[in-house]
Amino acid sequence: MDLCGHATLATAHALAEDELIDELVGFHTRSGVLTARVGDEVTLDFPAAARTEPTNVDGVAQALGVEPQEVHWVPALREILAVLDSSRTVRELRPDLPAVSRLDGIRGVIVSACASGDEDVDFVSRVFLPSVGIPEDPVTGGAHTALAPFWARRLGRDELVGYQASARGGLVRTCLKDERVLLTGRAVTVIDRALVARC
Question: What's the CATH class of domain 5-198?
């Protein structure tokens, strides 16, 4: 895998919890060096995922059960970004996951919309990756490398807050810096190997 937000955030958090790093750690990956800064939250420094101009994808409206306003190809992720008409549509979406997995040459689908005025976030999203065994990803760092530059251009601000509206859900603070995206969120230790070893 070229880039994985879950693994990068969790590893940085675990290293900090075990006091193996002070604050900053770098990971050598196929996407280059990815850094994580750990404090009360974790900030990941990832390459921004460029998108192409709007594209047509056969079957995407049928797979999603709604006609997107726009569809963009994100080559770095091998995914499409489907822009929907409202955050409510994103939240209530019930896609045909087998049909999503059959979309030709596409690893997955990111759906997103600008947040409504009564929400404390700037945009909402969901990510469906059934072709790789993930029906819906709860919170996706990789997707935000495409969402951050997309919504920064649309909204005219480099610092935004996104909400990934999966069943678990999660907030991701994004900051666009040139060709990089800073993603900030929280990590929680669920199992500690030292504790397990003592049991």
Answer: alpha beta
